[in-house]
């Protein structure tokens, strides 16, 4: 069945209205962080969607929280388990740098990576070398 042009426009405007209400849309994050995303970046992002368990470090403790993490559309979505319908939180990654922790970070664990944007720093630990490399 073919859609009429009116159906297509009403669908788009409905989607546009919905996306304006989400604070972590790609458009909003690009504007807020003064960055842009190319079509090539979008193509790569579509091909590189991941999900699995990661451990997140608590800010001022030695504890780690195990979370199901979905990486899609330039954003990490955090769930308690893979069966949850809605994320506990999300972290738009545009502008973040990925690195390994340095000695000053005080993290003495294997398979840890650091996400940082300005003063926002997050540490995540994978459960295996394979997961860490992905």
TrEMBL record:
It holds the Pfam family PH. SMART domains: PH. It comes from the Eukaryota. Residues 47-134 form the PH domain. Residues 7-18 have a biased composition (Basic and acidic residues). One of its GO terms (molecular function) is guanyl-nucleotide exchange factor activity. Residues 1-21 are annotated as: Disordered. PANTHER family: FERM DOMAIN CONTAINING PROTEIN, FERM, ARHGEF AND PLECKSTRIN DOMAIN-CONTAINING PROTEIN 2. This is FARP2 protein. The lineage of its organism: Eukaryota, Metazoa, Chordata, Craniata, Vertebrata.
């Amino acid at each position: 069945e073919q859609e009429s042009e009116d159906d297509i426009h009403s669908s788009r405007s409905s989607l546009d209205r919905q996306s304006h209400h989400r604070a972590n849309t790609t458009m909003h994050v690009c504007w807020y962080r003064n960055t842009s995303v190319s079509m090539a970046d979008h193509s790569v992002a579509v091909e590189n969607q991941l999900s699995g368990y990661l451990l997140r470090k608590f800010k001022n403790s030695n504890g780690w929280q195990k979370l199901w993490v979905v990486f899609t559309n330039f954003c990490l979505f955090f769930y308690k388990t893979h069966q949850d319908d809605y994320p506990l939180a999300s972290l738009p990654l545009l502008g973040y740098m990925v690195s390994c922790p340095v000695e000053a970070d005080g993290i003495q664990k294997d398979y840890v990576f650091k996400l940082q944007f300005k003063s926002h720093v997050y540490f995540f630990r994978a459960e295996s070398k394979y997961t860490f490399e992905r």
